[in-house]
Every structure is written in C-alpha cells, then in structure tokens.
Amino acid sequence: MKARLVVFPIKGRKWCFARSVDPAAADSQAAHTPSTLRDLWNRISSNPKPLNANAELLLDFASNKMNKAWVGLEKAPEGTLKNKLYGLGLRLLARVKPSEIFLKSISKEVSKVHVAYPSSLNARLVRRRLRHVALRGNFIHKKYFYGSVSLLPFTFAFSVLPLPNIPFFWISFRTYSHWQALQGSERLLRLVSDCIETQKSDASNKSKDEIHKSLGCPWVLEPSEELEKLLCIGDANDGVNKNAVSDICKTFHLNKNDILKFWDSM
C-alpha cells in the first residue's frame, strides 16, 4: 500500500510530519478486523498463523472495541458520567505528542511512501529528517512501551473501587499506542533507508525518476510548488500561521487537529 507523507517546516528547525488521510484504506482495514469474539476465534483457529500475526489480530480487535467505546462516550448526554469521562479522555489525549500520531499512521501495510515537501527544501535534508524522526521514535517508544507494560499489573488494584478503572484503560491505551508508534518508526526507517545508493548516482545519465523505477525504490520525493506557496502566507518570522495550516490541510487532506499540535508546540 502506498502512503503520501507531507513534510514542511513550521518555524525554524521545527518541522511538521503528517500522512494524508485515506478514508478508503481505513474502511478496508476496519472491514478485515473481526467484530466479535466468535469471529476472532474463527480467524485464529481456522487459519493457523505465526504467534506475532495472531497477536496483531488480537490487538486490532481490542483497538476496534476501544474505538467503538470511545464513540459511545462522545455521544453521551452532557452532564452524565460518560460525558465527563469523555472530557477527561480529551484532556489526556491532548498530551499525546504529534510525532507519535504521525508514526502510528505508518502501518505495516505501507510498502511505499510518496513524500511531498516545499520545493525550496533540499531533498536529502527532507529524507534525513524523516530518518531522524524514525530513529528517535524507535528509541523513545521502545522505552515507554516497556515502561507502560510494567505499570499494567499495578492498575488492577483500582478494580476494587466501584468506579471505572480509568488508570487501567489509560495505561492499556498508552501501551498499545507506544507499540503502534514503535512499529511505525521501524517501518518508516526501513522504507526511507532502502535504495540509499541512489543518492550516489547523480553523476549517472539517468534521471532520478528512472533510477527510482529501475530499482523499485520504496520512497519517492515530490517537491511541491503549491506547498511552497501556501507556506509563504503570513509573517515568515513567526512561522506558519493558522490560516496557512488550514489551507495546507485542505489541499493535502491532512487532519487539522494533528497539524495544530505541531503548531501549538512551537
């Protein structure tokens, strides 16, 4: 599966990394995720797979259930306990770093990335920045994943209270989130590190497009004049303003809330 990534500087050395929203891919993944325990058991028992594949299927099933429960909280009447839990969840989710959201979007199905970036930037710099994000994410999310796993047993102590075990659900979510970001960082690192020898082929008579096609490179760098023009809106000294962010999100089909997290972190 091909994924389109959008990379651009927000202000100075702080850059934004995002993946274009693809509703069709999301619907396709949801359709292949079992919806009931019976379906999950049939998928696991009818077609024996390696342990890691079954573990991923189980995690996808749990994630799907958590998403449905979250939608239920969102629709709860105002003032109810569920509505208050939803508000608490929003405050907690606001603390999730935008780089984690980006890495989580690089799923295991992604086999090729097309990277759109402002035409004024150097292509090697863009790819180097992507590799840096992947390397740093690999280190950080591996550490926090094992840390979250070690905290899970302690959250069972809250189950004796006559209230929802919020610490357990939050730590479970963070464990799964760090695991997704870790898998995404490893996947992205493999994608943008392949065909590294093509960067040394500038002296060849072939064009870069011909080199990419001949080697089947899993990454394609796409300088964008349109993105360059959108970034010029507003005062360059203060970074990209919110109007430019909105236009970029509409043009490149990005999640505005995720991009604003990069903007707010300036």
UniProtKB/TrEMBL annotation:
Keywords: Membrane, Transmembrane, Transmembrane helix. It holds the Pfam family Mit_KHE1. The keyword ATP-binding does not apply. One of its GO terms (biological process) is potassium ion transport. One of its GO terms (cellular component) is mitochondrial inner membrane. The keyword Protease does not apply. InterPro entries: Mit_KHE1 (IPR018786). The chain crosses the membrane at residues 144-163. This is Uncharacterized protein. It comes from Vitis vinifera.
